[in-house]
Amino acid sequence: MALTAGGAIPAHLRWLHDLAVPAFVPHRALPSGHLQTVALPFVRPPDALPGERVTIPVHQGHLVAHLDKLPSPRGVAIILHGINGTSAESFVLRMARKLQRRGFDTLRLNLRGAGESMTTATGLVHSGLTDDVRAVVTWALARYENVSMVGFSLGGQLLLRAVGEWGAAPPPGARMAVAISAPIDLVRCSAFAERVSASVYRWFIVAKLLKRYHRLAHAMPPGFNRERVRGVRTIRHFDEAVIAPLHGFRDADDYYSKASASHLLPAVCVPTAILHAVDDPLVPIAPVLDARATASPYVRVIVTEHGGHVGFLGDRVCPGDDDRFWAECRAADLVHAAH
Fold it and tell me: Residues 200-252: pLDDT tens digits?
């Protein structure tokens, strides 16, 4: 339970902290965080949703999203993918289906530099680029009375930073934010990613980052050519060579310090949930545990012993759940309860 220092949960937020959460029991074949994480790409994705292709104006272009509509929706839920994902990511599609079954239209966004937004908006997303998130929320609230948001990994960090920046003046229609496996402290996350045990993940993530960068190099500002990333081997190296200078940060440390969501969580005034596993091999649990003690009463932190990074594939379907993907079901329940 998240409490301000010496404070109590206000009555109007009891639903958030009292909502029952079934225990997560990992799939018997995937008992560790590493197995939960590496198995995710091998799980058969759901069929693609038809989705209406929409464009949302942002600084230097527009983002492309897919709006999945119901006849009489209760509202709309925005879904944000992770660092190398797209709107067609398997967990994004599953999340959309779960939310639709609970009565919500869903807006599956391609972040800047990802998927169909790669050629429509200049540059690459970074962990603090909340201008894009705010633009998407504004677009959604011009069409719906209320909006909720679910973010995975990088998408979760972006959501948490956005709601923290809103502080005591969030958009009136903002109902709920859920972050799954979010790197809320980029300084500690960067150090965690340098561990020997994370080398395989690091190699995989950096390879995809470089591939995306090379595809975008022709549209980058002067100096951001292929030679700029020669020798880049870690996420920190990539941030130092590309992300920090591209977005006006002094260096990677400056970027990590200024973009992290953790120090803004005490200011959050939108009902928010953070879901994280102790055995996440990519994002450390320590910042999340710290947040449980310092975040505002609008924030509920839910920690499991197992689940890996955006894995949470259970050994069974919990009563009332759609499938074995525990964290996605919890996110859908939280959004539903907020209405």
Answer: 999 999 999 999 999 998 888 888 988 899 989 999 999 999 999 999 999 99
Q: Is 68 helix (H, G, I), strand (E, B) or coil?
A: strand
So what's the pLDDT on residue 4?
Answer: 39
From CA 132, how far away is CA 117, in angstroms rounded? 12
Give the burial class of 113: count Cβ atoms within 10 A of its Cβ; 0-12 exposed, 13-18 middle, 19 or more buried: buried
Cβ count near 212 (within 10 Å): 16
Domains of the chain plus CATH, in order, are 11-185+261-337 (3.40.50.1820), 189-259 (no CATH)
* 190: region left, alpha or beta (phi > 0 left; psi from -120 to 50 alpha): alpha
Distances (CA, A) of 298 to 39, 265, 314, 325: 33, 9, 28, 25
Residue 131, number of CB atoms within 10 A of its CB: 13
- How far apart CA 225 and CA 245 sit, in angstroms, is 13
Of 109, 111, 107, nearest to 75 by C-alpha is 107
Query: What count of Cα atoms within 13 Å lies in the side-chain half-sphere of residue 219?
Result: 14
Q: What is the pLDDT of residue 24?
A: 98
3-state secondary structure of 145: coil
Q: How far apart are the first and last CA of the chain?
A: 21
Q: What span, in angstroms and rounded, lies between the C-alpha atoms of 110 and 107?
A: 10
How far is 110 from 82, CA to CA, in rounded Å?
Answer: 10
